[in-house]
Design goal:
Helix content is 30%, strand content 17%. It has 508 residues and is an alpha/beta fold. β16 and β17 form a beta hairpin. Bound molecules: NADP nicotinamide-adenine-dinucleotide phosphate (NAP).
Length: 508
């Protein structure tokens, strides 16, 4: 490997000319492996093909596309980003039924996109990438079917929220009723008239509550921490609205612009805990609680003791209505253990249950793992990420050449549409890959100093965000630092426009 040093703003070709070299590599058809056929993997196939790449394959661990929307089928599953914004920019969808799309609708949208863009033939289903090692300038992969493959470029589109986390609550296994994690919903279990308990009060549990409270016999919400709930209006689109969206692209575009504007404000609020916008959001959440929960005892149970937005904000049009249903009980006594017949509280009370839903979230620091990933000289991703997952601009890691992540570590941008984030990241990655295809280098990875300096600056900025104001959430790493993009959305888009190549080490 020979490293090519380039100066700020210097074209790579002139860096090579300085060394008396021409473009030595004739590397016009790199082989690309994409990991995961969810939103970001589907996007990768479409955009790689559009950019003229031909030699690529997607490994998908399951038998269907869709990622998080395939896995999460719990009652009420929906996306709290407006549907017209949670849509590929190149594939608007006039058929969304309401402001916020259900999980099933989103899954159908992705299925349609996959058919329209003929993505399916590129996917190898039921085949997970288990090992990914950079040896002699190429990625050597082993999959769960025993296949060996090689790649010049790996795009990890493996998602963030795909390893269910089941809290280590004593006795869970002793429960004799039906028990499952929210991401592994057992639809064969009837809920009508049953005593159902849900552990957790994250976005998932809140959506489940609204969806089932009036169908079950009794509903217990086991709340360890109260949530701030931001009121939203979920408007149904009529056939006339949809006709207008189908026939008038400007009307469809307007929906996107409006949603975008709302999230622009939200995204700038969360990165500055003292901002006027953040205070406005807090006031709206507080008014929602004060005005919509009548019983003062219940209201106090539901009143959080930390700042709104510190945990991922809950957006719900109807949670407060649902939780005031005569069937519903908010259980704030801590759980002592789970027993055969239900949940025993610290107070000694046993909440008898037929069904127990564990809505305790996901392991959010796994990313592509448990796949074993080794970069140059056998360096392991587990070791590099031993303290916490890092990546230069969330996309790439020093010493892991030509290995790019979509929605990688520290990337979520303030409750913003992950689709737009992935589109911008992929546009950036394609520019890095162009250096390889143009034969200017064989390997590209961020420099250690550029990556370390980015991470140090990111951590400092993250400490000023709303996520660092004193609560427990999956946004925080083990040091309590928000694992997030701590700057504005505009800055993110700006940085993604064009790589600063001096931050990279390019090698033949
Ligand atoms: P989550 O936000 O991580 O919430 C997990 C819940 O489980 C928390 O209320 C937590 O309590 C509770 N919990 C964990 N361990 C517990 C224990 N030992 N005993 C009692 N309670 C325990 O998980 P999630 O609701 O599945 O959501 C994860 C993420 O998925 C969201 O933040 C969001 O990004 C995404 N999501 C998005 C949507 C959407 O509409 N776009 C919908 C659903 C999910 P504490 O708060 O006390 O820790």
């Amino acid at each position: 490997m020979r490293v090519i040093r380039i100066m700020k703003d210097e074209p790579l070709s002139s860096a090579k000319a300085r060394r008396g070299e021409s473009n030595v590599s004739n590397f016009t058809e790199p082989r690309i492996v994409i990991i995961g056929a969810g939103m970001a993997g589907i996007l990768s196939v479409i955009k790689l093909r559009e950019a003229g790449y031909r030699d690529f394959v997607v490994y998908e661990k399951s038998g269907r596309i869709g990622g998080t929307w395939r896995e999460n089928t719990y009652p009420g599953v929906a996306c709290d980003v407006p549907a017209h914004l949670y849509t590929y920019s190149f594939e608007p969808n006039p058929e969304w039924n309401s402001t916020f799309a259900t999980g099933a609708e989103i899954q159908r949208y992705f299925e349609r996109v996959v058919e329209k863009y003929d993505v399916r033939p590129a996917i190898r289903f039921n085949e997970a990438v288990d090992v990914c090692e950079f040896i002699d300038g190429r990625w050597r992969l082993k999959t769960s079917t025993g296949r060996d493959d090689v790649a010049d470029v790996v795009i990890a589109a493996s998602g963030v929220l795909h390893h269910p986390f089941t809290a280590d609550i004593p006795g869970l296994a002793d429960f004799t009723g039906a028990r499952f994690h929210s991401a592994q919903w057992d639809h064969s279990v009837p809920l009508e008239g049953k005593r159902v308990g849900v552990i957790g009060t994250g976005s998932t549990a809140i959506q489940i509550t609204s969806a089932i409270v009036d169908k079950v016999g009794r509903f217990d919400l086991f709340q360890r921490t109260a949530q701030w709930v931001c009121p939203i209006e979920d408007k149904s689109y009529s056939e006339n609205d949809k006709y207008e969206f189908r026939t008038n692209p400007a009307a469809l575009d307007r929906m996107r612009v409006e949603a975008n504007e709302y999230f622009r404000k939200f995204s700038s609020a969360v990165i500055d805990a003292d901002s006027a916008e953040m205070k406005e959001i807090e006031a709206a959440c507080l008014a929602n609680l004060e005005n919509n929960v009548k019983d003062p005892v219940l209201r106090e149970k539901l009143r959080p003791n930390y700042r709104a937005g510190c945990k991922r904000l809950i957006f719900s049009p109807d949670f407060y209505t649902a939780i005031q249903h005569p069937n519903a009980h908010v259980i704030t006594d801590a759980i002592e253990r789970v027993e055969a017949n239900g949940v025993r509280l610290k107070s000694g009370e046993l909440r008898e249950l037929d069904v127990l839903v564990v809505a305790t979230g996901f392991r959010t620091d796994s990313f592509i793992r448990p796949a074993v990933v080794r970069g140059r000289d056998g360096i392991s991703l587990d070791d590099v990420w031993a303290d916490h997952p890092i990546a230069y601009l969330s996309i790439s890691i020093p010493k892991f050449p030509n290995f790019f992540m979509l929605n990688g570590p520290n990337g979520p941008v303030g409750n913003f549409s992950l689709i737009l984030i992935a589109e911008n990241q992929l546009n950036y990655i394609l520019q890095l890959m162009e250096k390889i295809r143009a034969g200017e280098c064989r390997e590209i990875a961020p420099r250690v100093d550029a990556s370390s300096s980015f991470e140090a600056t990111r951590i400092e900025a993250a400490k000023k965000s709303i996520w660092a104001t004193g609560c427990k959430s999956w946004y925080l790493d083990q040091h309590g630092v928000p694992a997030s993009w701590p700057w504005s959305r505009e800055r993110f888009f700006d940085v993604m426009k064009q790589p600063e190549f001096e931050a990279y080490e390019l090698a033949d």
